[in-house]
Design brief:
heterodimer; A: two-stranded antiparallel sheet; B: alpha/beta; Rossmann fold; six-stranded mixed β-sheet; 24 strands; 25% strand; globular; binds adenosine-5'-triphosphate; binds magnesium ion
Chain lengths: 426, 545
C-alpha cells in the first residue's frame, strides 16, 4: 500500500465500526417502534410440518409483543457493544447474524398476529423450501462469479448467462421434449457466454465491466426478440416445457423438518449441492485451485513457474458459465416451465453481490445467496397472508437486503489482487 | 549443461535493450554479469527464460538449438531463474509458493495397487520438501507463514528454494543479493559453490563489484545493450566500474564535516508491536520496535545500521504513520505522533521506502505521474482542482535528465523501467525537494556504481542545505560513506550510537546485539562524550528524558 493510499483510507476504517453500530441500533429501533408498538395481542404460531406429513412436529406458540420488544432491545444492545467494545472477527459476524435474525423474527411475529393473518400459522418448512428454491440460481450464479474472479476475470455477465440458460433450456426442452436435453443445452448456453466473455476480455483486452454489461444487454435484447417472434406465436412448440419433478432421497428425505427442506426437491438442488462442494474443495484443496488462485493473485508468478495463465482463465470462465447456465435453466424447466421476457430480473447482479458478501469463497457466497433467497421467500410469504404492506415494497426486499449487506456490513474485503486486470507478458 | 546465447537482440520500440549479445556459459561455471541500470541484463535473462521473445538471435543448449517461448519451455530445458522482482503470491504460504507448478497430489492407496491420484494437494509433502531443502542449504524459512508477512530477505530465500526444487542445471540469479544481509549473502555463496561443484552453471547478476569478484569465475560486462568486455574476477574495482559506466567512477564520495543546527526530528520511546502474522505463526511476539529514542538535527545525516529485519522497516513505517505505534514523534517541536501519513508528508518529510514496487511507485502510472505522486495536488503541479499537465511534464523532463533515468519516454509506465531506474524515479521525486527531513530506507538498493556515486553526492548536498537526513541501510559501506552519526539497531532496539570513525568490528558486535558495559542503555550510550562524532558538538545530543 502506498503512503498515499494509506492516508486516504485511514478515516474510512475508523468509521466502519460506527456505521455497523448505527445500523444495528437502527434495526433494533425498527423492531421496537414498528413491529413492537404496532403488534397485536396474542400468539404467533410457527408450524414445522407439511400438511399430510407422516411424522408431525408440534407447532410453537410465541407471545408476539413481549418477544418483539425483547428482540429489539437485544439488537440495540448489540449495536452499543459494537461501538464500545473491540470484538473478535467471529463475534462481529455473529452479531450481524443475530441482528438480522431478530429483525426477521420481529417482523414475522408482527405479521402473524395481525387481523389479516387470520390465524394462519407461519410454516417454517414452506418458508425454507421457498428460500432454497429462490437461492438455487443465486448460488450457481455466485459460483460462476467465484470461478471467474478467482482466476482474475470479472464476470458481470452472470445475468446474461442466467437469462440465456433459461431461454435455451425452455426452448430445447419444449421443442425436443426431453428435459435433460433442456438442462444440458441451458448449461452449454451459459458456457458459450463464458467463452465469449473470455475471448473479448483475455484476447482483445476489452474492459471487463463494460463487456459484461454489454453482453447482458445483448442477451436481453436477443431473447426478447426471439420471444416475440418465436415463442409468442408458437408457444405450444417452443415455450411449453414440462418441469423436473421432485426426487425424494431415501432415508434422509424422511427426517422430520430437515428432510422435506433439504432432501425432497428437484435435481437442481442436488446439482447445486454438488457444485458448492466441488468448487469449494476444488479452489482450496486441489492443484487446480492453487493454480487458479495464483493466476488471480499474481499472474506473472504463476507464469514463471510454467502455468498457462490464459488457459486457466478461459477454462474457468467457460466452466463457470456452464454453472450459471444451469442456474438459468432452473428458472424455466426447474420451476415454471415457460420462459418470459427478462425473467432473470437482476438475479445475476444479486449473485454477484452474494459472491462479494461471501468474500469470494464458494461457501460464503452460498450463505449470502441463502440470505437473499430468504428475503425473497419471506416477501412472498408475507404477500400470501396479505400483510398491509405494498407488494411492490415486499418485492424490493432482496434488493434492499443486498444494498445493506454490501454497503453496511461487508466491511473491508480483499478481491483477488489481479481481479479485472488483463495479463500481458511483456 | 552448456548454454550459449548467440546474437540476441531485443528492441522495445526505438530502444534497443539487447544488441547482438553473445554469451556462453560452461557447465560448473559461475558467470558474473555486470552492467549499469538499464543496460539490458534483466531483458537478456528474460529472453533466456521465455518471458520475452527476442527479435533476433538463438539459444543453444549443449550445442543444439532450442526454442524457448514460455517459462514452461525454459523449465523443461532445465533453466531456473530467481527474478529481480519476486515472483511470489503474497497471500500464499511459503510451502504453497514453492509447490506451485510442481504440486504433488495425495494418492489414494488401495491394497497393494499403485496409488490413484486424487487431485487433492499434498500439503504435508510440500512442507516437508521446503523443510528438507531449507535444512540442506541452510536457508532458514518457516513453510507455514504467508509471504506477505515475511521480510524481503526471507522472501528471497523462498525464491532460491523454488529454483532448487526444480533442479535447474542453469540457474539465473538476477540481483539476488540486493536484499540479503552480509551473512545471508555468505550463505547464498556457499549454496552457489555447492551447486557449481555439482556441475550446474550459474549466471549471477549484481551491482556489488566485490561480490562478483568473490564468486564469479568470469565476468561479462554489458553497457547499453552491448557486451563491452569479458574480464577475469581479479580485475580491479575501478576498471570494472569504468567499463560498466564508460567513465571513471569515484567509488567513495568525499564530504565535509557536518554542521548540525536545530533539532528537527525528536523520537521518544517509539514502540511498534510485533507483526501479527509472525506472532500467529509462533515465530516472534516481541515488539518489532522497542522503545527507540533519538534526535536528528538539521544538517546532519544519521545512519541507522543493522542486519535487515531488526525493526528498521517498522521504524520507518511508524515514523511515516503507516504503522500504529506508541511513543512520541516531534517534527520541528510539533507533535506529529497521531498525524496521518498525508499530514506527515505535508509537514515536510520526504520518504524513500524500502520496497519500491509496493510502497514507492504505482507501476501502471507513467514516469511523469509517478514523479508527482505526493505533490500532484499542490502548486506548481496543480491549480485549484486541475492538475497542471504541462508543469508535470516539464518537471518529469528535468528530473529524468538530472537523475539519468533511462526510459523510452516520460509517458512510459514505470513498470517497464529497469529495477535501478525505478529506484531512480523515487529518488528523483524525494531528494532535492528541500524538505525538513529526508527519511531514506536502502536508498541505493539496486543502483549501479555510477548512480550510487551520484545519489550519495545529492544526499550530502541536501544535508549541506540544512535538511535533516536519516539513512537506513544494511550496507555498511553506505553507512560509512554517508553517516555523520551511526545508530545500530538490534531486535527492535538501538544498541548504541557511534561516530563514523568506529571500527567495523565494533559495529559488527553492536549489530549482533552485544552492547559494551555501561553503554547498555541506548540513550545513555550516546551521552558518552567518547562517542561524539568528529566535526564536533553532536555528542550527548540524543538523550531524551
Ligand atoms: N516491457 C518493456 N517495455 C519497454 N521497455 C522496456 C521493457 N522492459 C525493459 N525495457 C527497457 O529496456 C532497458 C533494459 O532494461 P533491463 O531491465 O534489462 O535493465 P537491467 O540491466 O536489468 O537494469 P537494472 O540493473 O536497473 O535492473 C531499460 O531501458 C528498460 O526501460
Ligand atoms: Mg535488472
Amino acid at each position: 500500500m502506498t503512503a498515499i493510499v494509506a492516508a486516504v483510507r485511514a478515516p474510512i476504517v475508523a468509521n466502519r465500526r460506527l456505521i455497523a453500530a448505527v445500523t444495528f441500533v437502527a434495526f433494533g429501533l425498527i423492531d421496537i417502534l414498528i413491529f413492537g408498538l404496532f403488534s397485536h395481542k396474542g400468539d404467533a404460531t410457527f408450524a414445522f410440518s407439511l400438511f399430510g406429513a407422516k411424522v408431525t412436529v408440534p407447532s410453537l406458540h410465541v407471545p408476539a409483543r413481549p418477544v418483539t420488544y425483547a428482540l429489539g432491545i437485544a439488537s440495540v444492545l448489540i449495536g452499543v457493544a459494537r461501538a464500545t467494545v473491540t470484538e473478535s472477527k467471529l463475534l462481529k459476524r455473529l452479531s450481524i447474524a443475530a441482528v438480522l435474525l431478530f429483525f426477521v423474527l420481529a417482523m414475522l411475529l408482527w405479521s402473524d398476529t395481525g387481523s389479516w393473518a387470520d390465524g394462519i400459522p407461519i410454516n417454517v418448512i414452506t418458508l425454507m423450501q421457498g428460500t432454497l428454491a429462490a437461492s438455487i440460481p443465486l448460488i450457481l450464479g455466485a459460483l460462476a462469479g467465484c470461478m471467474g474472479e478467482r482466476s482474475g476475470v470479472i464476470n458481470i455477465a452472470i445475468e446474461g448467462q442466467l437469462l440465456l440458460g433459461a431461454f435455451t433450456a425452455a426452448v430445447v426442452a419444449s421443442a425436443v421434449g426431453v428435459l435433460w436435453l433442456g438442462l444440458l443445452s441451458g448449461s452449454l448456453a451459459g458456457g458459450l457466454i463464458g467463452a465469449m466473455l473470455a475471448l473479448f476480455a483475455i484476447r482483445f483486452l476489452v474492459d471487463q465491466i463494460i463487456l459484461g454489461v454489454v453482453i447482458n444487454l445483448l442477451i436481453s435484447g436477443l431473447t426478447g426478440y426471439l420471444y416475440d417472434r418465436l415463442l409468442v406465436p408458437d408457444a405450444n412448440t417452443y415455450n411449453n416445457a414440462s418441469t423436473f419433478s421432485t426426487v425424494k432421497i431415501p432415508v434422509l428425505g424422511d427426517i422430520p423438518v430437515i428432510g422435506p427442506i433439504f432432501f425432497d426437491s428437484t435435481i437442481f438442488l442436488y446439482i447445486t449441492y454438488a457444485a458448492i462442494i466441488l468448487v469449494q474443495v476444488g479452489l482450496f484443496s486441489t492443484r487446480w485451485g492453487l493454480r487458479v488462485r495464483a493466476v488471480g493473485e499474481h499472474p506473472s508468478a504463476a507464469d514463471t513457474v510454467g502455468i498457462n495463465v490464459l488457459g486457466i482463465r478461459y477454462r474457468n470462465l467457460i466452466l463457470g458459465g456452464m454453472l450459471a447456465g444451469i442456474g438459468g435453466a432452473y428458472l424455466t424447466i426447474g420451476s415454471v416451465g415457460t420462459f418470459s421476457k427478462d425473467m432473470s430480473s437482476g438475479l445475476g447482479y444479486i449473485a454477484l453481490a452474494a459472491m462479494i458478501f461471501g468474500r469470494w469463497t464458494p461457501l460464503g457466497a452460498t450463505l449470502a445467496a441463502l440470505l437473499f433467497g430468504f428475503t425473497t421467500a419471506l416477501g412472498s410469504f408475507l404477500g400470501s397472508i396479505t400483510v398491509p404492506i405494498s407488494p411492490f415494497i415486499l418485492g424490493m426486499a432482496p434488493y434492499v437486503a443486498t444494498i445493506i449487506a454490501v454497503a453496511g456490513l461487508v466491511g473491508r474485503v480483499r478481491a483477488p489482487a489481479a481481479d479485472g486486470k488483463p495479463y500481458l507478458r511483456e | 549443461m552448456e548454454l550459449e546465447l548467440r546474437g540476441i537482440t531485443k528492441r522495445f520500440g526505438s530502444l534497443v535493450a539487447n544488441d547482438h549479445i553473445d554469451l556462453a556459459v560452461a557447465p560448473g561455471e559461475i558467470r558474473g554479469l555486470l552492467g549499469e541500470n538499464g543496460a539490458g541484463k534483466t531483458t537478456l535473462m528474460n529472453v533466456l527464460y521465455g518471458l520475452v521473445q527476442p527479435d533476433e538471435g538463438e539459444i543453444l543448449v549443449d550445442g543444439k538449438q532450442v526454442t524457448i517461448h514460455s517459462p514452461k519451455d525454459a523449465i523443461n530445458a532445465k533453466i531456473g531463474m530467481v527474478h529481480q522482482h519476486f515472483m511470489l503470491v503474497p497471500v500464499f504460504t511459503v510451502a504453497e509458493n514453492v509447490a506451485l507448478g510442481v504440486e504433488q497430489q495425495r494418492k489414494l492407496k488401495i491394497g497393494s495397487l499403485p496409488g490413484i491420484p486424487t487431485g487433492l494437494l499434498d500439503r504435508g509433502r510440500a512442507r516437508r520438501q521446503v523443510i528438507e531443502l531449507s535444512e540442506r542449504y541452510g536457508l532458514q524459512v518457516n513453510p507455514d507463514v504467508r509471504i506477505e508477512d515475511l521480510p524481503v530477505g526471507v522472501q528471497q530465500r523462498v525464491e532460491i528454494i523454488k529454483a532448487l526444487l526444480r533442479q535447474a542445471s542453469v540457474l539465473i540469479l538476477d540481483e539476488p543479493t540486493a536484499v540479503l544481509t552480509p551473512g545471508e549473502t555468505e550463505d547464498l555463496f556457499r549454496v552457489m559453490r555447492e551447486l557449481r561443484e555439482g556441475g550446474r552453471s550459474i549466471v549471477f547478476i549484481s551491482h556489488k563489484l566485490k561480490e562478483v569478484q568473490t564468486i564469479a569465475d568470469k565476468i561479462t560486462v554489458i553497457r547499453r545493450g552491448k557486451v563491452v568486455g569479458e574480464r577475469p574476477p581479479s580485475t580491479s574495482d575501478a576498471e570494472l566500474a569504468a567499463l560498466m559506466v564508460g567513465r571513471p567512477v569515484e567509488l567513495k564520495v568525499s564530504k565535509e564535516p557536518a554542521k548540525p543546527a536545530d533539532v528537527v526530528l525528536e523520537v521518544t520511546d517509539l514502540t511498534v508491536a510485533g507483526a501479527a502474522g509472525l506472532a500467529a505463526a509462533g515465530q516472534d511476539s516481541r515488539n518489532s520496535v522497542d522503545g527507540v529514542s533519538f534526535q536528528v538535527r538539521a544538517g546532519e545525516i544519521l545512519g541507522i545500521a543493522g542486519v535487515q529485519g531488526n525493526g528498521q522497516t517498522e521504524l520507518c513505517e511508524a515514523l511515516m504513520g503507516l504503522l500504529p505505534s506508541g511513543g512520541q514523534v516531534r517534527l520541528d517541536g510539533k507533535d506529529i505522533s497521531r498525524a496521518t501519513p498525508h499530514d506527515r508528508l505535508r509537514s515536510g518529510i520526504s520518504y524513500i521506502p524500502e520496497d519500491r514496487r509496493e510502497d514507492g511507485l504505482v507501476s501502471d502510472f507513467s514516469v511523469a505521474d509517478n514523479l508527482v505522486l505526493d505533490l500532484y495536488d499542490r502548486k506548481p503541479f496543480a491549480s485549484g482542482i486541475a492538475m497542471d499537465l504541462p508543469a508535470i511534464r516539464a518537471n518529469a523532463r528535468t528530473l529524468t535528465t538530472e537523475f539519468d533515468v533511462r526510459t523510452s519516454s516520460i509517458d512510459a509506465t514505470v513498470g517497464t523501467l529497469s529495477g535501478g531506474n525505478q529506484q531512480k524515479v523515487i529518488l528523483a521525486r524525494e531528494v532535492g525537494r528541500r524538505v525538513r527531513l529526508l527519511l531514506a530506507s536502502q536508498p541505493t538498493r539496486g543502483l549501479d556504481v555510477g548512480s550510487i556515486e551520484f545519489v550519495h553526492r545529492r544526499i550530502i548536498e541536501e544535508r549541506d542545505q540544512g535538511v535533516a537526513v536519516i539513512i537506513v541501510s544494511s550496507e555498511l559501506d553506505e553507512i560509512y560513506a554517508l553517516a555523520d552519526r551511526i545508530a545500530v539497531m538490534y531486535e527492535g532496539q538501538i544498541t548504541g550510537f557511534r561516530p563514523p570513525s568506529v571500527p567495523v568490528t565494533e559495529l559488527g558486535l553492536l549489530m549482533a546485539g552485544v552492547r559494551n558495559g555501561a553503554a547498555a542503555d541506548p540513550a545513555g550510550s550516546d551521552g558518552n562524550p567518547d562517542d561524539g562524532p568528529p566535526g564536533g558538538g553532536s555528542a550527548g545530543r540524543t538523550e531524551p528524558t
